[in-house]
Design a protein that fits this description.
This protein has two domains: 29-282, Thrombin, subunit H, CATH 2.40.10.120; 298-420, Pdz3 Domain (Roll). 11% of the residues lie in helices and 40% in strands. It has helices at 77-88, 131-134, 269-282, 338-342, 367-376; strands at 29-31, 90-97, 100-113, 123-129, 139-143, 149-151, 153-158, 163-170, 178-179, 190-195, 204-219, 222-229, 241-244, 248-257, 264-268, 298-299, 302-306, 311-315, 322-324, 328-333, 350-357, 360-362, 385-399, 404-417, 419-420. A hairpin with a 3-residue loop joins β13 (241-244) and β14 (248-257). The protein is elongated and about 80 Å long.
Amino acid sequence: MKKRFLIFISLLLSLTIFIFGGCGGEARVKYVGDESNYSTISGDFADSGLATELTDSINLVLSSDSLTRTDEGDFPQSEISKLNENRRSTVEIYSLTESGAGAGSGIFVGFTPSDSSDLSKGGIAYILTCFHVIDSAYGVNIRDLDGNVFSAGLIGADTEGDIALLWAKVDFAVTVAKLGNSSQTLVGETVYAIGNPTGTLGGTVTKGIISAKEREITVENKKMKLMQIDSAINQGNSGGGLYSADGYLIGMVNAGVTYKDGLGFAIPSESILESVNKLISTYQDEAYSSYGYISGRASMDVSLTQFNDTFYYKLNDTTETKSLSTAVLVSTLTDNGSFGKSGKIIAGKDVIKTIELGSDVYNPTNAQDTINYIKNHSEFKVGNVIKLTVLRIGSYTIDKELNAYVYLVEEISVEITLLQL
């Protein structure tokens, strides 16, 4: 079984990640996983090949019950009881990567006991978290509210939706969150976020309200529809549960706004259910991976950057100097995506001059705009072909009159079949 069980996953089409404490005072939406270099907690790392006992009998079903609306005021005892139960369904997650260790939160969303007559003997636990919490990790340790430490393996991940489903073999019973229907929630409704802020304070509860629903937010270059909340959210809260006052899991915290208090975001439970069901249905189908994936979502494993100045170039067989006021360069590729597997693109050498998807032709002028154009195009689907005209850089000269580099390039047309992400 392979040890590096998340190596195949990367944040595709991503550029620079916004970091708390970055330049200036601009408020930016960012993930709230904590990337501090924590010492990992004790416990062996999981064998990444998933256990043979793992089946699709995951306990993750949306409730059809209407959510109870509670008035503001003192906590009724039943509400406190439900909060404490939900704290027990929340876990701390510690991931080990090549660059160090990170911390976040997770939620028990299912449990298959090894002996249905005695739950204390344990079984297979299913844990929901944000993809960015375990992105690029080769080991994941989990600690629950009782201090039990255990290792986790991957079932599958929705990289665009920032959702990951893990499994773990445990020797104790777990408390499973009761999934609610986020579409039944109301703006102004009381909610509770439970997580692991700073990566050291597992089981922390913060109270707030739903400030807005279906906010279209760009989180580190990804467009997402999220619930907006005013609960206190900090690094390490990512992957933690968002609960209604009557105890239902209605979302998963994944983002906050730098330099602004009271602006947090959560993935709605409806989105979670849709993704998880797809991950379960594609798990071990061996079509693209032994892990669960979102069928039909295309992969374009490329990062782009742009030249700061005018890009001057000459075709190899001409003497005429041409120019692009802004030029977008392929900066990196991975080996397991559409571009990398095609073998037709060279990172660090290929400037994209035109992109053709369907009947539309696009002239790149900005790296991030180009990424967004491709990802949001209706023809960006598995099996479709993307046509590119690239200028492949060979050598360069210095033009004293222009006071600039002039690149000698070969103009090449390539066609790349879009593969499954």
